[in-house]
Amino acid sequence: MKGNDRRSKILFTAEKIFARKGSNNTTISEIASRAGVVDSLIYQYFKNKEDLLFSIPYEHLKTILLKLDEHLQGIQNVESRISKMVWFHLSNQDNYPDYARVLLLECRSKAQFYETPAYNLIRKYSAILTGIISAGVNEGAFRNDIDVYIMRDFILGALDWETIACLAAGETEKITTDLEDMLTLIFAAISSKESVPLDKKNRILKVAEIIFSEKGFEGTKMSEIASKADVSEGTIYEYFKNKDNLLLSIPAKHFSRHSSLISNAFKIKDPETKLTRLIREVFSNFLANRNFLKLFLLEIQFHRRFYESKAYGDFKTYFKVIEDIIDEGKASGAFRQDANVRVFRNMLIGTFSHLALRWTIINRNRKVENDIMDEIEQTISLMTSAIKANK
After folding, report:
1. Reported pTM
2. Taking Cα atoms as reference points, which of 343, 40, 12 lies closest to residue 185?
């Protein structure tokens, strides 16, 4: 047997055993025995068990990237490209469930995985989706009021949790079962048809807030704000007397909005408002305890025994509140009748997971609290757009 054949045999065998038993319960000796080689041969190709584990998704992802490129060839329409990529992702997980288990339940649970060549290939995979979304935004097909990276995490997070729900929790026999329901929610969330463009005044305020925070009051020119907001400088003075007035209008807007939220906090009847409040509460509860958040992101959500434990029952009960709100909204006509409640729940959990991994593990030194809060609000906008009934 040639060297490459031996290496491939070791990887294939390790994937089967890791998927069935988990990496912590698997030894190099066991893999060697099943692969029909001696232990020392494995160490000729891999530094240690962890290197062998991380090499499995690396080899798969090289092939996946080539296949994805082939599948997307000739498809120009951005909605069709999104649909094709979502189908490709789910069908690949259906066709290679052992790989999916190894990636999600073994590799993704280890912080060191996010610094490996395999994760760099995941970045390339994610960049393809980001590029499609960016093209959709530029063409006017997708919303321009939501950060493209949040849209990407919204989609990839949903795909991850659909896979976990199938392979670990046994909610469906095949992951592709929920393909149409997932695409319905995705396009309802990101389509520009449902988004309301910011009026000139609010556009100016949003741009001014960003530039003032970056350059300071003295370092900011009104002409720069006008250029970024795509208005004339004279238009700014139609809404604001001077730069001082513009600056002070920013906190006035924020405090007014938050005062309204607080005053309505305990008398919520509208399903959309109630859902918004609950989603924000979910994010706040997790972010309030960073130690538990990191534990959930790395050790719990990717732990296969979690889905067989009482804790998973408690977890489902926790999110049952959101499912009940959606059912209430469907009954009142506020939410779309064709929305799959279970898929929506997985989409929410998956989106949060992807965002929180970025905030706490991958880019932990780059995000400040204001950025996180802004991303939460954009995520809420996506989630509510996905579920709202077409008027």
Report:
1. 0.81
2. 343
Cβ atoms within 10 Å, residue 184: 17
Distance between CA atoms of 179 and 160, rounded to whole angstroms?
13
Summarize pLDDT for 324-344 with one digit per residue, the tens. 999 999 999 999 999 999 999
Q: How far apart are CA 38 and CA 28, in angstroms?
A: 10
Residue type, 279: I
CA separation for the pair 313, 315 (Å, rounded): 5
Where b means 16+ CB within 10 Å and e means fewer, 11-49 reads: bebbbebbbeebbeebebeebbebbebeeebbeebbeeb
From residue 299, give the alpha-carbon distance in Å to each of 57, 198, 294: 19, 41, 8
Q: Which domains does the chain have, with CATH numbers?
A: 58-142 (no CATH), 200-263 (1.10.10.60), 271-387 (1.10.357.10)
Residue 57 to residue 93: CA distance in whole angstroms: 12
Residue written as token pair 């209430």? 328
Tell me the sheet residues that pair with 335.
388
Helix axes 28-35, 3-21, angle to 10 degrees: 120
Label residue 384 exposed, middle or buried (CB < 10 Å: 0-12, 13-18, 19+): buried
Q: What is the pLDDT of residues 198-218, one digit of tens each?
A: 678 888 988 888 888 788 888
